[in-house]
Amino acid sequence: MSIAYKFSFLLTMPAKAALECIKQNAKVMERTVQELHAELNALTDQYVSLREKQLREENRILTAAVEEAKKQLIRLECQQGIKQISIPNQTLLVATIPLQSASTNDVNKTNLSQTATDTTKEVKPKKEKKPKETKQKLPSSEEPSVDVGRLDLRIAKVEDVQKHPDADSLYVLKINCGEDKPRTVCSGLVKHVPMDDLKNRSVVLLCNLKPVKMRGITSEAMVMCASSPELVEVLSPPIGCEAGETVHCEGFVRSPDPVMNPKKKIFETVAPDLATNDLLQACYKGVPLNVPGKGFILASTLKSCAVK
């Protein structure tokens, strides 16, 4: 019904009936406005809920990306020898928060009790504290970069091989690495290398690991091997090497720690970059390990395999 028609219809009605009709129309319009208002609120709530879900998902993705970036940064810093410092735990700070929410009455009672106790005690003069002597810290030398130069790799010769009395998978080796007496080395090569193949054999020995007991026998070094899931091969030094000669890697200064600190994880940082290449040469970051003037350290058959 058009507005003009409604207006002409109202003119033909008595005044009281016309007024009643206007009131009814006003109620209908008010109800319509309320319904539209409710629909608008419902649509707004749906939009807000949907947008909130989208933002939460975006936040989750960004958080995961940030965490991955942090891990990558820490990994790169460790490779560059940058020391990692852990963030102090905030547990103590959190534990003190509930104490601050105690009611005012409890605090007042505590203060009154403390005051009553203090009045019964004799007031003693406080002793003057002597100023603490501050020791000047000497500037520490810069930490060397963590690379293959920190490993004490030497040519050595196996002088004796025995089975470990308490471990079927271990050999107990006596190895001459150019020192006054041979070192004792426990090696898990029983399943991979026959005993006769180790006797009188020249090997590459990692000499600055911290000694560790293995089933009651202290192992003082580690025989370096090329390793795959199916096979383990003892690395072979160049022909003509003598026990005690040092192993080098071009481009990396050889400055081994006397004994590597296990907490600094030096070997664990270097090990992922030790591997053989397609020429069977043992390498660090693709650079072959060598004995100067003698030649390269080689595996027998394993190419592109981890060295450990």
Automatic annotation (TrEMBL):
CDD domains membership: tRNA_bind_EMAP-II_like (cd02799)
Coiled coil spans: 19-79
Xref: InterPro entries: NA-bd_OB-fold (IPR012340), tRNA-bd_dom (IPR002547), Tyrosine-tRNA_ligase_regulator (IPR051270)
Primary location recorded for the protein, binned into one broad class: cytoplasm
Ranges of residues in domain TRNA-binding: 147-248
Entry keyword Coiled coil: yes
GO biological process terms on file: translation
Compositionally biased region (Polar residues): 107-118
Subcellular localization: Cytoplasm
Amino acid composition bias (Basic and acidic residues), ranges on this chain: 119-136
Alphabetical UniProt keywords: Coiled coil, Cytoplasm, Protein biosynthesis, RNA-binding, tRNA-binding
Disordered: annotated span: 107-146
Sample GO molecular function, one term: tRNA binding
Any GO CC annotation of this UniProt entry: cytoplasm
PANTHER family: AMINOACYL TRNA SYNTHASE COMPLEX-INTERACTING MULTIFUNCTIONAL PROTEIN 1, TRNA-AMINOACYLATION COFACTOR ARC1 FAMILY MEMBER
Protein name, entry field: tRNA-binding domain-containing protein
Source organism: Ignelater luminosus (Cucubano)
